[in-house]
Amino acid sequence: MTRGAPAEFRSSKPVVRGFCASCGSCLTYSHDARPAEIDVTLATLDEVRQLAPRMHVWVADKLPWVRIDDGLPQFPGSPGSANST
């Protein structure tokens, strides 16, 4: 976004999703239980290749066939609320 703010939709009681009001692209996700965190949809960024990952979060929710073997820290949920694996 270059101006304005994302439109928001409360998709469930604890979750607010931000999106572009013009095209509908999903932009953000926030959860009432973690008010200091906002997840950003990386595919919506212009220069996403410049953002190297530093960790993997919400690993407990990954599909069973997904393998993460790059040596980066892994967290079952949010890194502030769980130990790394």
Describe this protein with a few key phrases.
mainly beta; 4 strands; globular
Walkthrough of the structure:
This protein has 85 residues and is mainly beta. It has strands at 7-12, 15-19, 26-31, 39-40. A four-stranded antiparallel beta sheet has the order 1-2-3-4, with no helix packed on it. The model has no long low-confidence stretch (mean pLDDT 88).
Strand content: 15-25%
- Summarize the helix and strand pattern as letters: EEEE
Oligomer: single chain
Number of helices: 0
Class from helix and strand fractions: mainly beta
Provide the spatial order of strands within the biggest beta sheet. Answer: 1-2-3-4
Judging from the principal axes of the Cα atoms, what is the shape? globular
The profile of the biggest β sheet is: 4 strands, antiparallel
- Give the helix proportion (percent range): under 10%
| Radius of gyration from the alpha-carbon trace, in angstroms | 15 Å
Strands, total number: 4
